[in-house]
Amino acid sequence: MSPILLAPMLHRLGLTVLHALWEDALVGLAAWAGLVLLRRAEARLRYRWACLGLAAMVLAPALTYAALGSGEPVSGRMLSGLGLWAAPVTGGADPTRFRFETLLPWLALGWLLGAALMLLRLGGGLWWLDRRYLAQARPAPAGWEARFQVLARRMGLSRRVRLLASDRADSPLALGWLKPVVLVPASAFLALPPEALEAVLAHELAHLRRGDYLANLLQTLAEAFLFFHPAAWWLSRQIRETREHCCDDAAAALLGDPLPLAQGLATLAALRRSTPSDPDPALAAARGPLMQRINRLFKPQPAPIPSLRGLALLLAGATLLGATALASRQPPVPLSSTPLKLRFQPEPPPYPPEAKKQRIQGTVVVDLVVDDLGIPVRAHAVKGPQALRSTAVAYALGWRFEPGLRDGKPSTTRFRLTMPFRLGPAPGPVQDFDFRQIRVAHQPEPPAYPAEAKARRIQGTVVVSLVVGTDGVPESAEALEGPDELRPTAVAYAKGWRFEPAQVDGKPVKARFKLTMPFRLR
């Protein structure tokens, strides 16, 4: 199996996706029940409830992922001499039984791919809106610009909002958050009566006052992460429909008469039917069931009960799949002391850099479950420094064993692995010296002049910073100044020098000083 598929993070993520099927199904049912109870309430209250439900759908899997434990990827540097002691136990598991554990990494990779494609779709949509609409828009007629700014102030907007006309758009729409824009089809200035167009513009200004552009972006992100769950798409559709109702109510309240808005929506719908249409932008005025929106403007009535039949079938399927998958997972295997033969031990991984920098040492105890083929399928660090756990877990998953036996048949095996991490003595501090304070024990023969530099008649002086250990042997060298063509030769030459150990208070110390190396052509 590929090392990538053995990563603890993928196992944890795949299990999270399975749990999300039934968790978000329950959240979806709770959201449906709340919308039914609030069907006589104001649209903004139903909108808030639906948004809360979608936020809960995102939060539930996130909390589940956190609760499933550590699954960080491998990193760092482990010392040679890493020890391992195993106290294995076997537990009954039918080797012919379907092991869903092996599919969890693929499920996680599928989710990552799907979410990435959805995010790419979102980014492409934002770029398309900018290139398709904003880049080709032009200022609205002067008379409408002044009227629009008065309307924006009446709506309570403190920031300036631009009004633009577009030959591409087939319905007014609101774009932007920091620099908001209302885009109107050029034909709407001629086709709509002034009062009707003013009402439609008030609807779009209501979107901007409520921050719906940002809310819609967050909603689209939630759809990207929950693309696999039907309840998320159903609830997202409810949010978009209710959002339009909220803006309809705000526009009608501002103008004091719902008739102009109803006329404007009906005329816009007729214009859209008469011209080829692009896909609906997020906050276009003519979105949603048109007749339902017009009717509720004149005759307030309880919101229709969201259909549960299709939702219930989808939720039942998702819940059944999640329950079946989780039920197919093997039950916990108890620990015992039955020995298990080792088949393959990978090279020790590097020691974690951050732990090495902080001088963190200790022993990590890893709980490892090995399937009936001798392949580790699950690992969890139960004890040891947090900075060392992910490295120990990833290392344990790379081992291979002879299958454990129970009643003569291969069975699932659970191990307790003890992994000590030890660092060598801490390096001493480096003292800065002048070259005149350093005694040279050996100076090698001057190197040959670099051929390329010689051919190009390049000369100069290279300054090399040299760090020498307590034994007088250079540990590192770096060229600080001088022609680039001469630096590699100077560095290699400096590393060949040997020195008497530098001393402070009679004790050898690491020394750092500069060597000046002139290169001259004859």
Molecular structure report:
The protein has 522 residues and is an alpha+beta fold. Among the domains are: 78-99 and 332-426, TolA/TonB C-terminal domain; 111-217 and 242-287, no CATH class; 430-519, TonB (TolA/TonB C-terminal domain). Helices cover 44% and strands 19% of the residues. It contains 15 helices and 19 strands. The strands form five sheets. Strands 1, 2, 8, 9, 11 and 12 form a six-stranded antiparallel β-sheet that branches. Strands 13, 15, 16, 18 and 19 form a five-stranded mixed β-sheet that branches. Strand 15 (460-468) and strand 16 (474-481) form a beta hairpin. The model is unreliable at 70-98 and 279-288 (pLDDT under 50).
Helix and strand arrangement:
Elements (H helix, E strand, L loop, with lengths): L7 H30 L5 H25 L17 E2 L2 E3 L12 H29 L5 E2 L2 H14 L6 E5 L6 E3 L5 E5 L2 H4 L2 H16 L2 H14 L4 H26 L3 H16 L15 H9 L10 H19 L14 E3 L8 H5 L4 E9 L5 E8 L2 H11 L3 E2 L2 E3 L2 E13 L8 E3 L7 E3 L8 H5 L4 E9 L5 E8 L5 H9 L2 E2 L2 E3 L2 E13 L3
Parallel strand pairs: 4-6, 13-19
Antiparallel strand pairs: 1-12, 2-12, 3-4, 5-6, 7-10, 8-9, 8-12, 11-12, 14-17, 15-16, 15-19, 18-19
Pfam family, one: Peptidase_M56
Protein name: TonB C-terminal domain-containing protein
Keywords: Membrane, Transmembrane, Transmembrane helix
